[in-house]
Amino acid sequence: TSLNIALAVCLAGCRSLSQLAELPETHQLLRQTCRDFADRELSPIAARLDKKHSYPAKQIQELGAMGVMAMEVPEELGGAGMDYLAYSLAMEEISRGCASTGVVVSVNNSLYIGPILKNGTEEQKMQWITPFTTGEKVGCFALSEPGNGSDAGAASTVAHQDGDEWVLNGTKAWITNSWDASATVVFATTDKKLKHKGISAFLIPIPHPGLSLGKKEDKLGIRASSTANIILEDCRVPLDNMLGPRGAGFKIAMQTLDSGRIGIASQALGIAQASLDCAADYAHKRTAFGSPISKLQAIQIKLADMAVAIESARLLTWKAALLRDSKKPFTKEAAMAKLAASEAATFCSHQAIQILGGMGYVSDMPAERHYRDARITEIYEGTSEIQRLVIAGQLLKEYQS
Amino acid sequence: MSGRVLVGVKRVIDYAVKIRVKPDKSSVVTDGVKHSMNPFCEIAVEEAVKMKEKKLIKEVVAVSCGPQQAQETIRTALAMGADRGIHVEVTGKDYETLGPLQISKIMAALAKKEEAQLIILGKQAIDDDCNQTGQMTAALLDWPQGTFASEVSLEGDKIKVVREVDGGLETIKINIPAVITADLRLNTPRYATLPNIMKAKKKKIANMKPADLGVDITSRLEVLRVDEPPQRQAGVKVETVEDLVSKLKEAGLV
Fold it and tell me: Are the Cβ atoms of A29 and B79 closer than 8 angstroms?
C-alpha cells in the first residue's frame, strides 16, 4: 500500500523526488491539521491583528502545544521531531491564514532555534531551546545593523572579553519578534581586523541589563509581529553565552539564513496562495457584462499566471527542503525558492487587487493586506538581489569544475 | 468502569463546501469534493480521548464504514488520541445505500466482538442529518442511551448524562454498558499535535467486511430523487404600512 511505501521511505531517512508529486500520508495529515487551524483560528482574526498591530500570543501558544513552534527540535528537547518538508508545509498553511503569525513561527524555528540546535552545547540547547518550544516564549535573531543589512560581514557591534564576561556594545536593526522575545542570538565582532572571520554569535536573554529595545517600527505589512532596534550598551553575559567557536559567527549566520530562506519561501507561498484563493473566489461571484468575470479571458490569464508562479515556487521550496532533509547541499535551491516564492507573492497579491478592482483597494477584503504582507518577503532574510548573487555564485562554481 | 470505548467516525463532505446535486438527480456530487470527519464525530472522539486521559477508560477504538478513503478519517481519530482503528470496508453501490440501520447493526456486532463498555457517536451526520444511528444501536444491543449529550460524567458504575432537549436540559443516569451521542456543546475537539500525527502512523487499523461480522447490509430504503432546495424568490416591495398590512391579510397571514 502507499502507506507502507511512505513508511519505508521515511524510515530509510532519505527523501525522494516522488514526494514532490504526492506527499507522504503523515505530511498530508499535518498539512490538513495546520490548514484547519489557520482557517478556524487565524483567518478570522488576521485583519484585526493587522489593524491593531497585536501580537497573537494565544494563537502562538496553541501552535506551541501542537508542536509547530519547534518542528525540527528532537522530542527529548520538547520539539516535534519532524523534517523540514513538514516545516515548510506548516509554514505555508499558517501564513495563508495570517502572514504575521507565520513570520513569528518562522523566526522562532529557523532563525532562533536553528543556530542553537546546530551549534549549541547540550547545556545551551536545554537552556535556550526547551523553554522556547511551547509557544510561551519566542526568540529572535539579531544580525542586521543600521549601517549594514546585506553587507553582513561589516558588523560594527563589538564584543570584548572582560574577565569572565563578554561585554557587547552596538545597535542591531530591524529585529523581528524583538518586543515579544525572551532571548536573542546576536552577532558581534570579537576581532575587527579579521573582518567577517572575526564575528561571533552570542545568546542574550530578554530582558537583560544593558539590552534595550528601540521603538516598534510602523511597518507596511506583517504588522502583528514586532520589529525594532536592539541596543546593547555594556551588555554583559557569561563566557558560556558564546554560541559556537569564536570567529564562527558569520558562517553560523549564513548557514542559518539558508534554512530560514525555506521558511520565508513557505511564508511567501502562503501569502500568494491566499491571494489566489481570494481572487478566484471573487471572480466566480462578481458579475460584469452579464456574466461572472471568471468567464473573461483577461481574468483567466491572470489566474493561470498566478497559479503557475505559485506552483513552481512551491516545487522549488519542497526541493530545497527535501535536499536539506537528505543532508545534501541546498544553498542554491533555498535561495532560488526564496527568490521565486517572494516574487510570486508580490505578483499574485498585485494581480489579486487588480482582479478585485475597487474592492481590492479597501480593507473589507483581505487582498490589500496580502499586498502589504507580501512586500517584505522580497527584502528580509536576504534581498532578492542577494539571492541572485548567491544563486550565481553557486552556479558558476558548478560550471568551473 | 475501566474498559473499551468504540467511537464511530463518519467521512462526510466538508461543512464549508457548497453542495451540488448531480444532473441525473440521483445524489450529490462527491468526486473531487473535499471530505472530512463529521464534526459531531470529532466531538465524540475528543470525549473518548478525554476519558482515557482521566484514566476512566483503557482503550479508544475508532470505527468507520466505507471505502478506502474511510481510513483517512480513522487516521485523524488516531492522531487525536484513539488507540487503534477498525475499517469496515463497504464500497460501490453498497456504500451509496449505506445508512443508519446497517451502521447500527455493524456497531452492535463490533461492540459484542470487542466487548466494549461504551459506544460514543456523533448525534447526527451533517450529510444525511438522520440522528438515528445511536438510538438504533442502543436498541439492537438493548443498552441504555444518552443522546444529545452536552455533559457526560461517570458516577460509580453509572453514567450521568446531561441532554440538550427542546425544553432545556435533561439530566439522566444510565447503566453501563451504554450508547452516548455527542451534541455540539459537549467539548471542543483538539487539533492533532505533530508528535501525535507521527505516532498515529504506527497505530493499527484492522480491516474487515460486514459479512465477517455476520451483518447483512442490504438497504430497505430506495432514494427516488435528490433536489436542490428551491431558489429563494424575490420578495414584494410595498410603499406604506397600510399596503403591508393589506398584503399580509390577503395572504391569510394575519
Answer: yes
- Partner-chain residue, chosen from B36, B191, B201, that has the shortest CB–CB distance to A26: B201
Q: How close, in Å, is residue B185 to chain A by CA atoms?
A: 17
ipTM: 0.77
Identify the H or E element spanning B46.
Answer: helix B39-53
A75 with B195: Cβ contact below 8 A: yes
Catalytic residue among A22, A165, A381, A398: A381
Residues of chain B positioned with their CB less than 8 A from the CB of A81:
195, 198
Give φ, ψ of B49 to 5 degrees: -65, -40
Give per-residue pLDDT as tens, B209-237: 999 999 999 999 999 999 998 888 888 88
Handedness of CA A170, A175, A178, A183 (dihedral sign): negative
Q: In a 3-state reduction of DSSP, which class is residue A284? A: helix
Spatial separation of the C-alpha atoms in residues A172 and A156, rounded to whole Å: 9
Catalytic, A381? Answer: yes
- CB contact set of B134 (below 8 Å; sequence gap of 6+): B119, B121, B123, B145, B147, B179, B180, B181
Q: Is the peptide bond before B177 cis (omega within 30 degrees of 0)?
A: yes
The CA distance from B103 to the nearest CA of chain A, in Å, is 26
Say how far apart CA B140 and CA A25 lie, in whole Å. Answer: 37
DSSP bridge pairs for A168: A159, A235
